[in-house]
Sulfotransferase
Amino acid sequence: MEKEQLSYEEAIRRASDAIQRFPLIDVHGVPLMSTIAENWKSVSEFCPDPSDLLISTYPKAGTTWTQEIVDLLLHNGDAEVCKRAPTAVRIPFLEICSPPPIPSGLDLLEQMKPPRVIKTHLPIQLVPKGFWENKCKVIYMARNAKDNLVSYFHFDRMNLTQPEPGPWDGYIHKFMQGRLGWGSWYDHVKGYWKERKERNILYILYEDMKENPFREIKRIMHYLDLSVSEDVIKRIVQLASFQVMKDNPMANYSNIPKPVFDQSISAFMRKGEVGDWVNHFTSAQSQMFDEDYANQMKDVDIPFRFSI
Ligand code: A3P
């Protein structure tokens, strides 16, 4: 029998009953959603084409923003082409695996011809080795720990497939101990940082992108060996701005129904700011976090900024 072709939205609607806050299961010491852990063999064996591009981030570091910028760069700033499908369909999420009939990242990738752009949140040691063997380009975006934490907290409230975040104070400790999906933020940002030269990874910072998107988009353009006019880059700055993406149904995840992303709890495109952490941390929490941060980050000098 021929497989019924469902739209992504319809597939999610049909799977709604099977949606739950999936527990985390350790994969090589990294907690991942159980649906990913159960499918781990297929994920780890995925072999990209050398022309494929990987966008990697710790969750909530600005993945969707980077995806939009890259798609716009690859299509010379053509806004209409970049509205051909929602972000998750244009740029599949490698390891994501949900109840059928929702297509997994691997299902979507199988239907696409290289060169593909692929999203992952995997820490560097779990990225399928084919990406390194085939010398694929990799763009890594990182965001300062406190804003990243705040964003993840609100995301875990509204993403009903992620474990309950619990109260804010406890969440800070979970973050510091790496007990969240995709593990430790500290190990994640450090892992890619230490390997960036050896493996030709373009390492970009959310705060730099926010401060000067024109400059950072140009860096991405050069890395991708593209030649896009300055006018087009200016247009991309505008099209990938927070407000334009918030209003763009192909970039704001409004296609994901409420049983998965309940945006009445917190919007996916929530604030998009640097320094929102000051509205969440008490001064005692901030001090405790900073002391632990200094210790966990003492072996690297990544130029994160907590305000701009
Ligand atoms: P906030 O929760 O702080 O608002 P990801 O795409 O990795 O899930 O990250 C989501 C975070 O990036 C959210 O942060 C979201 O608002 C922010 N974001 C998305 N698009 C953005 C843009 N164009 N400019 C600035 N921030 C953006």
User: Anything to note?
Assistant: Residues 38-296 form a domain with the Rossmann fold fold (CATH 3.40.50.300).
